[in-house]
Amino acid sequence: MECLELDSSDFFVEGDAIDSPLEIHLESDSLAGTKAVPDHRRYAQLHCNNAPDPPPLPGTSYGARRSSTKAKACSRVPEEVLDSWDRLFLEGYQADLRVSTDDGTEILSHSCVLGVKSPVLRAMLEDAKLEHGFWCIRISGAPSEAVHVFIRFLYSSRFEQEQMKKHVLHLLVLSHVFSVSSMKTVCIDQLERNFLAPDNVVDILQLAGLCDAPRLSLVCTRMIIGDFKTVSLTDGWKVMRRVNPSLEQKLLESLVEADTKRQVRAKRMEEKKVYLQLYEAMEALIHICRDGCRTIGPRDQALKGSRAAVCKFPACKGIELLVRHFSTCSVRVPGGCANCKRMWQLLELHSRMCLTPDTCKVPLCRHFKEKMQHLGRKEETKWNLLVCKVLESRGTMGFISERRKFSTLKPAGSRHVAPRLVDLFET
User: Which residues form the BTB domain (predicted)?
Assistant: First the structure.
């Protein structure tokens, strides 16, 4: 008995519904593009003599490829067709194959359908024996109900949710053993969405490794790392430690790596917060020296008094206290007073970010600009790195050119650390 070979697209085609009649594309090496294609130029000349000639027709191969792509993108199997395939399996109409299971149950099906959907089943059918007019194969290692759900899926891609919940692990194994990728994708999706839990995640992780399901393995690993304290107390973890110590070691290494990445991420967020504070301090410093704020500002600026509206610069209050201390401190030595040291660092940082030193009203801006010319390469690189970090913390498009300017001064592969600036905003 010969097995009819059908294309899988005859059964399952994904896409949108087809509202128009089925279009059949015929192609011949000798006639395609000549007799089969109407002469549009002659038609246009007969009906409109003044109309320009249309563009040349596309080649045959291009037209065939374009037509097939369009048909694939706009086709979808209607529900009536799926109902027909589902009924074909459930009723066993003109079945020619018996699939037996471990408990002796026999499931009637069609060899052509199973052979098309699974290359493994096709190989089994080639060696199958014919008994009483039926080809006979055996599927072992799974309950008969799971095998029934599996074969039904080969026909119509349908399943009952209760059956999937009960046999999802067996169906995952069957889909892997018989190379049915569509069912394997469904099983992985169902496990991720509905069935993963701390008490079974270790077992599913081991099964995912056996069934070559890397995405499911990744999801399980993330769940174990995220709730390691709970998972490590389950029976599945205890059994895994005894029978698969290498997997336990791998999971522990992943846990350490995830914790290290979490610490690095937290450190970067804290650094970004400090750089953002420095940027706000630069804005507040320019605001005070140029416009004035409440009771502090340049000599030629009329102050608004302490009852003025709240300042929009969040760091203004801290900078105001720092400036007042700097103006009255008797030490005023960068290494002798901590507050004065903060102020010196702020002024130098501003001078490196300032693009108009000739008109800038911030004190000592031009002085530090001249001082920069006498710094060593290492010290210059540190300050340029700090300026880039401060500008990047704001993340605005207006400072892209400035970031590029300072980043070009930083040598490639440099690992120098920016100068450490203590907290500037103590009130």
Answer: 95-163
